[in-house]
Amino acid sequence: MSATNTENTTSSLDGLKWGVTILLLAAIVVGNYIYGESLHVVARVAVLLLLAALAVLSAAMTEKGKTFVGFAKDSRLEVRKVVWPTRQETVQTTLIILAVSTIVGLVLWGLDGVFVRVVEFITTAI
């Protein structure tokens, strides 16, 4: 019975947090529209960034936000484990891809030329 009450409280608070997030994002859009010309650019950007940071913070405090933050941290750890290719490997792979693409392009160009002449021969013979 206690778990149900906690879950309902969390869900209602999550709804409130999402509401605050949506209001902050709406304030960004409306504020930028209303004060787009009258406010100095630096001040406007500072206020918009502050509101955006508050919206992200509000969203991060929800259950789905916490799940996303955990996923982002795990993803960052996984990216650190990746063995990235060296510059030489990257250059060699790029050159191989360019060579193969050129060869395939030339083959397709040749086949197109042959097919055009075959179709031209068939249509003019009829």
Question: What's the layout of helices and strands?
Answer:
Blueprint: H1 2-34, H2 41-60, H3 63-81, H4 87-125
Any overview of this molecule?
- This protein is mostly helical and 126 residues long.
- The chain has helices spanning 2-34, 41-60, 63-81, 87-125.
Beta-strand content bin: under 5%
Major β-sheet profile: none
Terminal CA distance reads 86 Å
Extended strand count: 0
**Could you state the order of secondary-structure elements as H and E?**
HHHH
Tell me the Rg in angstroms.
29 Å
Ranges where pLDDT stays below 50 over 5 or more residues in a row are: none
Structural class: mainly alpha
Overall helicity? over 70%
Number of helices: 4
* Shape assignment: elongated
Would you summarize the structure shown here?
The protein is mainly α and 126 residues long.
Note the main attributes of this structure.
mainly alpha; 4 helices
